[in-house]
Amino acid sequence: MRIRLLFFALYRDLAGVPEMELETRPGATAATIVEELRRAGGGLARLPETPAVAVNREYAPLSTVLRDGDELAFLPPVAGG
Amino acid sequence: MRAWVTRDPIDAGALLGAVGAPADGAALLFVGTVRDHNDGRPVVGVRYEAYVEMAERVLGQIAAEAAARLGTDRLVVVHRIGELAVGEASVAIAVSSPHRAEAFDACRFVIEEIKRRVPIWKEEHYAGDEAPRWLAGAIPPIPEARP
């Protein structure tokens, strides 16, 4: 299944791109993707083990099981206002 | 009630004009502006970035929660993103209600919740050749895993 990944602010700097598509196995959770990205090396090796994420534009626990076509966003600590 | 994100300068006066009613005895406008310093160092400007679709959704949720506290739906909130100079408005909130206590409470609630959970980030720019820096922010509240 395919997941769309979005990176913002500091995490975009680590990824080097604002978004990417990832092919992953059915049943994968957000935590699975975090592990894969950290293991793949490059800047994303510095992604925290438990970053805040949103699935389809809602904050979600890392245990969330992903579905084909989901949008998984990696969100650094927020600083609006 | 309205909540949105914009790349354009904020017209705070227009925002205040969007609230108010004959039944209201209080109208409040809060404007957050870009400071020329932070943590003891001079700041020459900032850049805000947002996950726009989600930021507008969370802003809308905050506005709805605030309206419940306010007791009216006369509440508007806008957050600007992109490059901002010192002194420019980054966020503005206008509310009105029959009595002042609810208006102050709702306005304060909106700005504090924005800082806590809207997916917006701020990069500070400094004078000279010092590199810009993403500000350390708040870890948003994440819902518990459902069994």
Question: How would you characterize this protein structure?
Answer:
The complex is a heterodimer of chains A (81) and B (147). Chain A has a single domain, classed as Beta-grasp domain (Ubiquitin-like (UB roll)). With 81 residues, chain A is of the alpha+beta class. In chain A, strands 2-1-5-3-4 form a 5-stranded mixed sheet. Chain A has helices at 9-15, 30-39; strands spanning 2-7, 19-23, 52-55, 58-60, 71-75. The relative contact order of chain A is 0.29. The termini of chain A are far apart. Chain B has one domain: Molybdopterin biosynthesis MoaE subunit (Aldehyde Oxidoreductase, domain 3). Chain B has helices at 12-17, 52-70, 100-117; strands spanning 2-6, 26-33, 37-38, 41-42, 45-50, 75-80, 82-85, 89-97, 120-125, 133-134. With 147 residues, chain B is α+β, with helices and mostly antiparallel strands. Chain B starts with a strand and ends in a 13-residue tail after the last strand. In chain B, a hairpin with a 2-residue loop joins strand 3 and strand 4. Classes of the chains: A alpha+beta (81), B alpha+beta (147). The A-B interface holds A 6, 8-10, 13, 52, 54, 57-61, 63-64, 73, 75-81 and B 32, 48-51, 53-55, 57, 79, 90-91, 111, 114-123, 134-145.
Summarize, please.
Chain A is an alpha+beta fold. Chain A contains 2 helices and 5 strands.
